[in-house]
User: Fold these one by one.
Assistant:
Number 1:
Amino acid sequence: MTKLQTVTSEGETNIKGFFRNASKVSRLSLILTIVVTFVLLTLPYLAGYEARFVHVIGRTVYAVGLPFLVLNPLLGFIYSFFINEKIKIVYILVHLVFICTISLFAFVVIMFRYFVPFAP
């Protein structure tokens, strides 16, 4: 029982330590935003396949990835203000660019896909 408690407390300490380091959180937010954007941009190339599971996977990735692209840059932008390094302004500007481009694009796709009746 004590081993389980120590493992749990060490794991919690590592996670808490990660979220307290604003530079790591902001950097991870940038990397994940780029990776998910790349995945969503390459996903339409799988539309040529007729397999049903490919279409189900595509819909699932879009359903999870688009809200992620709206919220993740906002989280990174907020964490960028707590960085205590000289590169703080670069993180803020890059996250702002991601919010203005990628998050706006993801929001428009969500609106046209799920809420607008005349969408394709």
Number 2:
Amino acid sequence: MPFDRVAALAVSVAVPVLALPVLAVALSAPAAAQNAADGERQYRARCVSCHSTEAGQNRVGPHLADIVGRTAGSVEGARYSPAMKDSGIVWDAEQLDAYLANPRQAVPGTSMPVGVPNADQRAQIIDYLRTLSGSAR
């Protein structure tokens, strides 16, 4: 094979390999946005009857605006079980995942009866809730 063909082949292989980290970062933002969009659909199907996304608008459960980083049981005017008030939880992705998977196991005595057993759906909902939080933690 002539040298110029070898050099062209080397460049054609090296450039895509070097571009992979950049491509991964570029693709992760749209993927996260899609996950959050799917999460909003999951939220509307599963959560909206009991929770609002507007600060100060509590329903059966507390509003979920700025939930990431918030201490459980701390929304003024919301009704909480004693178990939730005393849980000491500060909501992050890990705590939300455990709670949404099985609320009554995560916080025995909680008043939230409904869980989200599907891990992908939980991840989508959590990504959506992150978009409602000031620092998108």
